[in-house]
Structure to design on (570 residues):
């Protein structure tokens, strides 16, 4: 799919009632209601999934790959996000979940948690070398990276220029499978088991590197029940636990996990896209010069709160915590932190997308801004959203940019109708 | 000629809204297509001046004018004024009380930071009358 603005987040028109919930919550004002249905402005959408969460009619959806897609490949590799371990509850250990994935049809399972540890190592190294711009902002959350691209161009240089754990996992898994079993690259299908809509977009339209090493992104929602079924049939795992990632990587699933793993300096862990916005606002004004690292995750409670996760994020957090404690008591199974991360440094640049710009010509932009000011002044300032824009100011912008008219405002329409009525009376 | 004008209130000692005006101005400049570097310099200079008015000046107001060549910002307060402006301009010099420093402000970098980021900085101050900070940033600096 070769589109610059492909998005995982889409609208089911049939379900949309044209209410104001999504337009009011979208952090980039990327949604309008037109002719009674929501419309997503593609250039602005960052796939954060807020609209999926707030839509009472479930009209907003994240498009993921169908689970049957794995059948297209003769050798199938699963990359479970660490948040998967928080979905099932007590008794469903990580070992059990990983075995279930194999039973489900995957030949090889590579935990994204392991890749997360490698990224953590690289982050530490990256921050120690001293030439980086502080605060370093994690690039693990694709929605946050896109948010920075359109809203905070000054912070692009602060982004951690290391690929996200999913990509790192895909690269290492491919290598391992090739080395161990001699499977050629084109026979392998690599699938990320995702709580996240933005990751789908990352695979179809990668950020830093040119082509993703992931072939498909499967929703945790789609695979949850089949896995649960398998685990129930298999019963408890009685074998000795096999080598899995350490607690550090697993903890990445929740807010604070990544920043705890980077043991360098003063670190902030912020989650929820609106909270992220507040922190980035401060960072851009130089107000966070005493902070070394910012872990910023678009979803509440981090990836556990992803729109494709099944369990409530607070409950999932308890499940995960239990799993982490178990791993910590069992240090023998800790994977040594040796892998080299230099090859995972971004090769291409993340660019500023000036999509908020009113006009390429500064003079024209100024004129438009003045017109927007004038129109906003004439509106009622209720920010009711009935016009389909998230605020009166946004409506004024739409009017000036040619995608709306003043009478889309019901109060303006009422004014106009009553003035016509007066004129009619005067004719009599 | 197109000029965009904005006026903002800066409330006294209210850190929850400190920085709001400079944040809004940042958004406007971005919409106007001003380059990110200039936006950043403007934003930092204005933020520092705004914070100064909050901490030292009992609040005040910000007046902003933007045309196609430059942004002019005037932040005025009716606070105690600056007795020795030259001293105040020095990096690290601060009269902020400990309570303010504990909040991470008042490191004595404010005025020098403004100077560093503004193309023209003009400060008018009178003891017991107040302070006006005039900041100009050009969009196409040679």
């Amino acid at each position: 799919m070769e589109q610059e603005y492909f998005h995982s987040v889409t609208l089911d028109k049939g379900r949309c009632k044209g209410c104001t919930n999504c337009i009011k919550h979208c952090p980039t004002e990327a949604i309008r209601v037109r002719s009674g249905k929501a419309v997503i402005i593609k250039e602005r959408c960052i796939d954060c999934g807020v609209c999926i969460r707030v839509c009472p009619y479930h009209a907003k959806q994240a498009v993921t790959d169908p689970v049957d897609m794995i059948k297209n490949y003769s050798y199938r590799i699963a990359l479970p996000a660490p948040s998967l371990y928080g979905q099932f509850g007590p008794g469903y250990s990580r070992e059990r979940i990983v075995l279930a994935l194999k039973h489900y049809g995957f030949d090889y399972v590579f935990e994204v948690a392991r890749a997360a540890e490698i990224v953590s190592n690289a982050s530490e190294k990256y921050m120690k070398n001293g030439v980086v711009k502080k605060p370093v902002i994690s690039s693990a959350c694709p929605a946050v990276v896109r948010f920075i691209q359109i809203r905070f161009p000054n912070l692009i240089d602060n982004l951690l220029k290391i690929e996200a754990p999913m990509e790192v996992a895909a690269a290492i898994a491919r290598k391992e499978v090739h080395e161990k079993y001699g499977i050629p690259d084109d026979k392998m299908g690599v699938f990320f088991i995702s709580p996240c809509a933005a990751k789908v977009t990352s695979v179809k339209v990668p950020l830093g590197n040119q082509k993703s090493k992931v072939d498909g992104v499967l929703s945790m929602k789609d695979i949850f029940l089949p896995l649960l079924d398998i685990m129930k049939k298999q019963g408890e795992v009685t074998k000795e636990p096999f080598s899995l990632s350490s607690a550090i990587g697993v903890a990445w699933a929740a807010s604070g996990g990544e920043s705890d793993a980077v043991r360098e300096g003063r670190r902030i862990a912020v989650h929820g896209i609106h909270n992220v916005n507040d922190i980035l606002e401060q960072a851009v004004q130089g107000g966070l010069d005493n902070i070394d690292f910012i872990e910023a995750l678009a979803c509440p409670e981090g990836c556990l709160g992803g729109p494709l996760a099944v369990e409530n994020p607070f409950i999932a957090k308890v499940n995960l915590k239990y799993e982490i404690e178990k791993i910590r008591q069992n240090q023998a199974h800790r994977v040594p932190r040796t892998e080299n991360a230099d090859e995972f440094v971004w090769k291409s640049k993340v660019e500023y997308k000036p999509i908020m710009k009113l006009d390429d010509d500064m003079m024209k932009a100024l004129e438009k801004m003045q017109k927007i000011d004038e129109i906003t002044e004439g509106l009622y300032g209720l920010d009711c959203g009935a016009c389909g824009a998230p605020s009166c100011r946004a409506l004024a912008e739409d009017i000036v940019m040619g995608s709306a008219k003043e009478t889309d405002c019901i109060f303006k329409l009422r004014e106009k109708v009553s003035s016509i009525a007066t004129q009619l009376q005067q004719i009599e | 000629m197109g000029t965009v004008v904005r006026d903002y209130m800066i409330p006294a000692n209210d850190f929850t809204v400190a920085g709001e005006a400079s944040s809004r101005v940042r958004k406007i400049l971005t919409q106007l297509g001003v380059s990110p570097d200039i936006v950043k310099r403007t934003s930092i200079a204005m933020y520092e001046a705004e914070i100064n008015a909050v901490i030292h000046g009992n609040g005040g107001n910000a007046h902003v004018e933007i045309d196609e060549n430059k942004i002019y910002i005037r932040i005025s307060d009716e606070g105690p004024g600056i007795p020795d402006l030259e001293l105040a301009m020095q990096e690290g010099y601060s009269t902020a009380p400990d309570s303010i420093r504990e909040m991470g402000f008042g490191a004595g970098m404010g005025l020098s930071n403004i100077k560093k980021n503004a193309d023209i900085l003009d400060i008018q101050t009178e003891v017991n009358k107040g302070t006006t900070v005039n900041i100009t940033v050009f969009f196409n600096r040679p």
Q: What stands out?
A: The first helix of chain B runs from residue 20 to 32.
